[in-house]
Amino acid sequence: MKQGMFRGVVMAVLLALSAPCRAAPVQVEDFTDILFWAGSGTNAAALVLQFPTVVGTGTSAQAAEPASIAWGYRWNGADRFESMLFALTGVIVGGPQAVAGSDPRLAVDVSYYGPEWGYFVNEITYDQIGLGAGWTPIERRIGPYDPDTGEYPAQYQLDSAAGRWTGAPLDYSTTGIATTPLVPGGWYGFVQADGSAATISFSQPVAAVPEPSTLMLLACGSIAALQAVRRRRTPPRGRGGA
Questions:
Q1: Minimal CA–CA distance to 4: which of 233, 239, 158?
Q2: How far, in Å, CA of 117 to CA of 125, rounded?
Q3: Which of 115, 124, 211, 223 would be 142's cystine partner, CB 3.0–4.6 Å?
Q4: Contact 48, 30 (CB under 8 A)
Q5: Is 229 helix (H, G, I), strand (E, B) or coil?
Q6: 186 Cβ partners below 8 Å, 6+ apart?
Q7: Peptide bond before 25: cis, by omega within 30 degrees of 0?
Q8: What span, in angstroms and rounded, lies between the C-alpha atoms of 168 and 201?
């Protein structure tokens, strides 16, 4: 294979591998648009977190978008919301140790109230720092209970969505994560609210971004190296190059 053809093939492969490094947020229409999955099995459900809009000051004065972010979870048999949340969360304070394949950008603070009540969610954060265009580089947060507003990470769900984002309001959950059963095709999530609303309309989510793998990081570096080599070998225009 000629050197030029070989370099072209390598460039095409590396560009394909490195695409997630540069990708803008992907709007989720159904489960096929979700990028970050945990678990395994024939059943699937989604976690959607609606974060409060944050507006900075000075040079960071911009809306923190997107508001809603989605992850996916697969399982077999019967399962609960608690299993999905802990399988996806890379940093768990007050709960079990995070498992392999979880999202290191996603963190949750929980409290355990014994086998009768299980875990309660106190706070949820998502680190957008280092993501590509369209992601404001901040840490998003659904905060703990606020005695002034009565707001906390309120749990909502929509069991009848069949894996599609219909725009239908999510229903307030009267059970906690330990006892909420997962229904295939359902959406389960949190929003900062006081729990007084029977339903809440979440904004259409975008897909959470997986951490770049070592291969993807290598691809990004290799692309830069190949481009540097190309620049060194290309004669400057206007200086006698053929």
A1: 233
A2: 23
A3: 124
A4: no
A5: helix
A6: 45, 46, 157, 158, 159, 160, 161
A7: no
A8: 7
pLDDT tops 90 at residue 2: no
Q: Give CA 19 to chain center in angstroms.
A: 17
End-to-end CA distance of the chain: 24
Q: Give SS3 for 129.
A: coil
The first and second tokens of residue 230, run together, are: 């190309």
In angstroms, rounded to a whole number, what is the distance separating the alpha carbons of residues 131 and 176? 32
With a cut of 80, say whether residue 64 has pLDDT above it.
no
**Alpha carbon distance 62, 65 (integer Å):** 9
Tell me the two tokens of residue 28: 């989720």
> pLDDT tens-digit profile of 7-54?
443 444 433 444 444 457 999 999 999 999 999 999 999 999 999 876
Neighbours of 219 (CB within 10 A): 22
Taking residues 116-123, what's their average pLDDT? Answer: 94
Q: State the amino acid at position 196 in one-letter form.
A: S
Q: Helices 214-233 and 3-22 meet at what angle, rounded to 10? A: 130
The pTM is what? Answer: 0.77
Residue 109 DSSP SS3: strand
